[in-house]
Amino acid sequence: MTELLTLAASTAPGLPLGITEGGTWLLRNAWLIPLLPALSFVGILFFGKRMPRGGSELGIALVGIAFVLSLLTAAAWIDHRDNFEGEEVHRAVAVAEHGDDHVEAHAEAHGHPSLGVHNTVTWFEMNDVAFTVGTLVDGPAVMMLVVVTLVSLLVHVYSTEYVAGDRRYTHFFAFLSLFSASMLLLVVSENTLQLLVSWELVGVCSFVLIGHWWEEKPNSDAALKAFLTNRVGDMGLIVGVTILFFAVGSALPGQFGSFSIAETNALAGAGQLSHTALLVASCCLMAAVMSKSGQFLLHTWLPDAMAG
User: Fold this and answer.
1) Counted domains in the chain
2) Quick one: which of 199, 200, 138, 159 has its CA closest to 53?
3) pLDDT tens per residue across span 227-239
4) Are 219 and 211 in contact (CB under 8 A)?
5) Residue 119, in any domain of the structure
6) Which domain holds residue 261?
7) Nearest to residue 284, comparing CAs of 248, 233, 245?
């Protein structure tokens, strides 16, 4: 990915992506925030039953640290937004006929607003497509980091009494931590493939937590209903990600697809992606959001989930 992205001065050709590889240490290492509850999951799973409070203390401690890091990251973002003077990442594009005016106009109008902080490593490459893992930290991502860690911390504290004395107390806190880690990873995902993985992890954790008291048939039925209903919506996410992958690839020279969220946003904003492809992909992504958040048509799992 790094070799495909070119840091350029404002006079160099290419499409500005609205991101930078600079930024403070906290913004470049936001992956530590989802890592903490992920470590909590592993620790509780293997050592929770040996701990005085069944592992809940580990979950609360690490999610609490993640919350503090989120607040510090938010403060770092405000400073970055107001004072950062580094270079913006540009990307060469295969401009369609009469499309160069759109790219130039986008580059001129883009200015130098708040640049998202982009930090990735290449996992592997295949057929000129780079599969990367990393983080993309911008204003909405920072806001959601604070919201998710705060709500998760409150849920962890509340659950110490809610499931007190339960025979699977440790199991509950392990998956509650994994649930938190999955949501945080989703928030800072740099590419749609990573987003898809974290999205599915959220679904698996929902299934496990809804069916926590699986001995009671209404609970196990509710968990299965939630799992199957969400899979319907998740098909929309898979289709939407696939459409965007090939649509972005058609605008990039030398490759047939890209999972990069920054590239997708920049190309869409510059008018370099097919309107039809964007419309269909948006509808597919909306279907996924509808199922996960229990909105009308794909909401039927949510009332039953309250039983679990």
Assistant:
1) 1
2) 159
3) 899 988 899 999 9
4) yes
5) yes
6) 6-305
7) 233
